[in-house]
Design brief:
Blueprint lengths: L1 H27 L5 H26 L4 H44 L13 H58 L5 H29 L8 E4 H19 L2 E7 L3 E4 L1 H18 L5 E9 L2 E7 L33 H11 L3 E7 L2 E8 L3
Parallel strand pairs: 2-4
Antiparallel strand pairs: 1-3, 4-5, 5-7, 6-7
């Protein structure tokens, strides 16, 4: 038993010395090729076996012939192991280079295509992750292009919408200044109307900039959805009367919600104003609210005749108006973008779908 322990001790000391030497070599060559690292690992394994075997052989005082035989056997094993390590390293390194070349493509705006037949599970997993990342980058680039297009469109429309009333204001001011206005009171009322409209546009731009910058500060409070809808309906009733549109709000459940009352009033106001302006005279705008499995759902249904299916994904985009009209009722295309921003700030979602004779905008909020 003591001889076995002594043999094990000598073998361990020899192998440990080889292992420590190999660890030092690996540290020095840690930035080299994978082929070199695998060769060093194989060499360390063989050297550890050789050192342990020779140490035991010398300790046992084997004959020169026996020692020569043992050394030859270990040397042959070392050659085969090193050759196998080099071949495996070159194979893995070649596939790694293929993966590197494929990775460069989606970094330059292309799409990642994983090389076929990865030799190791880790490289195959890395290829799958890179493919998923490439898909996310493609989606992000598409969203960025759509956002840039909507921003360009918004700038063009805002520039037009501001330039038109400014030109009218300038003409009316010059007429008043020259004493050419036959009805100065009408001119002053028109000036005030245009100024209020421009002030609303600037306010919408400021609100949208706060939402997009993430600086919108909410002050949530527990309020009844019935009261919130009632106040919004009362606020837009004069506009509905002016357009000859009927407001219906008799399907409102008294559901409590935890929201910022001021911001949610703006959401309801934007949805109702948009619905009233798009609904023809003698049409109906209906408001409903109820509790569902996903939270509290508030919907506004109008009689606009529906939205083209290809435009539905763009309804809440900044600058979308639904038509190419530049007339004042078309607005600046900010109202629905503000709606989505405020709703998402409340951890909710805004959606739209076509219904018979019009469309339905729905807002889903977390239940209190």
């Amino acid at each position: 038993m003591n001889d076995v322990l002594l043999i094990a001790l000598f073998a361990f000391l020899g192998a440990a010395a080889a292992g420590l030497l190999g660890a030092g070599v690996l540290r020095l060559l840690r930035h080299r090729s994978l082929v070199v690292s695998l060769s060093v690992v194989a060499g360390v394994a063989v050297a550890a076996m050789l050192a342990g075997t020779l140490t035991v052989a010398w300790a046992m005082f084997l004959s020169s012939h026996d020692l020569y035989v043992v050394t030859t056997v270990v040397a042959m094993a070392a050659l085969v192991s090193l050759a196998t390590a080099v071949l495996l390293g070159r194979w893995v390194a070649a596939h790694s280079r293929e993966l590197t070349l494929a990775t460069r493509s989606f970094g330059d705006g292309g799409t990642f295509a994983a090389p076929a037949g990865q030799p190791a599970a880790e490289l195959a997993e890395l290829a799958r992750e890179l493919a998923a990342t490439s898909a996310k980058l493609d989606s992000s680039r598409e969203r960025e292009r759509a956002l840039e297009a909507s921003r360009r469109e918004l700038v063009a429309w805002i520039s037009h919408d501001l330039r038109t009333p400014l030109a009218g204001l300038r003409a009316m001011a010059e007429a008043l200044e020259d004493g050419m206005a036959a009805d100065s009171g009408r001119y002053l009322r028109q000036i005030r109307t245009e100024v209020e409209r421009m002030n609303g546009m600037v306010g919408d731009l400021f609100e949208l900039s706060r939402i997009q910058a993430g600086s919108l500060t909410l002050t949530p409070a527990r309020i009844s959805l019935y009261d919130l809808v009632g106040d919004a309906l009362a606020g837009v009733d004069p506009l509905a009367r002016e357009h000859g549109v009927r407001l219906i709000g008799d399907r409102i459940d008294e559901v409590p919600v935890e929201v910022d009352g001021r911001e949610m009033s703006r959401v309801l106001g934007n949805l109702l104003i948009n619905a009233i302006r798009r609904t023809p005279p003698d049409g109906t705008v209906a408001v409903a609210a109820h509790r569902s499995d996903g939270g509290v759902v508030l919907s506004v249904t109008d009689g606009c005749g529906g939205i083209p299916e290809e435009d539905l994904p763009r309804v809440f985009d900044t600058g979308w108006r639904g038509s190419h009209a530049r007339t004042p009722p078309a607005g600046a295309g900010l109202g629905l973008a503000i709606v989505r921003g405020i709703v998402e700030a409340h951890a909710g979602r805004a959606e739209v779908r076509n219904v018979q004779g019009g469309c339905c905008f729905s807002v889903t909020l977390p239940a209190a």
